[in-house]
User: What shape does this take?
Amino acid sequence: MALKTDFRHFLDEAGNVVELTKQAKTIFKFLSKIVSAVSENIEQPMIDVDLNCNTRAEQLSCGGSIEGKCSAIDMIEWHCDTCEASGTISNWQGSLWDKQARILH
Ligand SMILES: [Zn+2]
Assistant: This one.
């Protein structure tokens, strides 16, 4: 089952992180790291994120690595290289974790 997330749900209008539950904080930390890594290497077809699968929630034992890419519709897709875990992140552009913002077009 893919985890579909809208990055805006974690942010207020100013782009700051809203107050999150402990569980949401954990998943946000996970997602924001993917956004940073993928946006920084946006031209690459697949990016190895320096992140273990089990950091997305407590009590997970999978030590697989997360890989991510930016799809054609500007959605970040990620998956674990070991288990079935996968997901998408939308509306991450322009956030504090969007590393491509500094590139001039
Ligand atoms: Zn996994």
Q: What stands out?
A: The radius of gyration is 13 Å. The CA atoms of residues 79 and 86 lie 4 Å apart. Residues 2-102 form one domain.
